[in-house]
């Protein structure tokens, strides 16, 4: 349980109960709702101490997730992820891995995401930028972002979610001139 706690601890932010519930469902398959959901979230370290308040909050979040098509309620009080919910779980899982504070060994290769999304799709382009930044990527140029660790799965998932597969390239770069500033920003040696 210590591993779960460290890997999936969510910072207090908007949506942390939603993400926690999706992660709990993704890890366990289907759970008895709301009692097991509450216990699972407490194990992961997300649940508030006020069980009544948090139970109410879980019910609201679960209803919202059901209306979004991410979960479904089954017989005898069980709740489970739908196909869309499974995709969202995998996205959250990859996001957590990228954001984790666990020191990974750098293989001395840079991962670049390069995109050319037309102006008429500005909102998608902006969403991609914000998402890359939230995952820890650094902007190298206007439409070029860089990251030191393997993130191909995340980029593939982002391309599929945003529907921009033909406009986004993923590259692994062996050598990048003048990368000392980047190494310093990422805390690499």
Description:
This protein has 189 residues and is of the alpha+beta class. The protein folds into 2 domains: 98 residues, Winged helix-like DNA-binding domain superfamily/Winged helix DNA-binding domain (Arc Repressor Mutant, subunit A); 77 residues, Alpha-Beta Plaits. It has 8 helices and 7 strands, in the order ααβααββαβαββαβα. The strands form 2 sheets. A 4-stranded antiparallel β-sheet has the order 5-6-4-7, with helices on one face. It has a 3-stranded antiparallel β-sheet with strand order 1-3-2. The longest helix has 17 residues.
Short recap of the structure:
The chain is of the alpha+beta class. The chain is built from 8 helices and 7 strands.
Keywords:
2 domains, single chain, Arc Repressor Mutant, subunit A, alpha+beta, three-stranded antiparallel sheet, 189 residues, 50% helix, Alpha-Beta Plaits, disordered N terminus, four-stranded antiparallel sheet, 7 strands
């Amino acid at each position: 349980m210590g591993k779960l706690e460290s890997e999936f601890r969510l910072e207090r932010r908007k949506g942390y109960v939603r993400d926690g519930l999706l992660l709990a469902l993704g890890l366990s398959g289907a759970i008895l709702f709301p009692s097991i959901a509450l216990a699972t979230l407490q194990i992961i370290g997300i649940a508030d101490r006020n069980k009544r308040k948090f139970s109410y909050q879980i019910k609201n979040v679960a209803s919202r997730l059901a209306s979004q098509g991410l979960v479904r309620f089954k017989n005898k009080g069980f709740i489970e992820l739908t196909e869309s919910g499974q995709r969202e779980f995998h996205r959250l899982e990859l996001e957590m891995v990228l954001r984790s504070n666990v020191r990974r060994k750098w293989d001395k290769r840079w991962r670049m995401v390069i995109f050319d999304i037309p102006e008429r799709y500005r909102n998608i382009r902006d969403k991609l930028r914000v998402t890359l930044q939230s995952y820890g990527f650094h902007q190298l140029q206007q439409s070029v972002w860089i990251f030191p660790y393997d993130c191909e799965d995340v980029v593939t998932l982002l391309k599929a979610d945003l529907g921009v597969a033909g406009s986004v390239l993923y590259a692994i770069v062996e050598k990048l001139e003048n990368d000392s500033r980047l190494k310093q920003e990422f805390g690499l040696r």
